[in-house]
Amino acid sequence: MAVLYRLYQNNNKKNTKAYGKWYAKCIHTNLYGTDELALEVQRNCSMKKSDVKAVIEELCEVMARELGNSHAIRLEGLGTFYPNLKSTGTVTVREFNASKNITKVGIRFAPMRKKDSGTNSYTKPMTASWHIQEAPKNTVMPEPIDDEGGEGGGEGGEP
Question: The whole model's pTM is what?
Fold first, then answer.
């Protein structure tokens, strides 16, 4: 299996550097929920699906609380989650009002990286073995997945 993409052309005339250029956009062919993940984990270890699901649900609660306390969370082998804010600027400090100027609250995710001592470069172990290929033209894709307001990667380029 592979990570699939489709090409799209940037039609945003406001972004003059990217306008008219072609970019790859990752497409998703399925959505794995907690039940599906718990079933997969059950197949690979001695825990029951219900136990795995309980752990995942509790992890979500603990992460929400800790991120809400301005803590970053590192899950070894996966990466680090950070609370994130976007805001509009003000000319002076006194003009800043959190309820007016903070426009978005979210969570960032940074995949785990490992430094290769030989090349002095970083790799992302989770993505290192991925194969990337263009989706077949006749593939029917499901409706876009709503990530419930999460902030993450993006498609790359400058669209």
Answer: 0.70
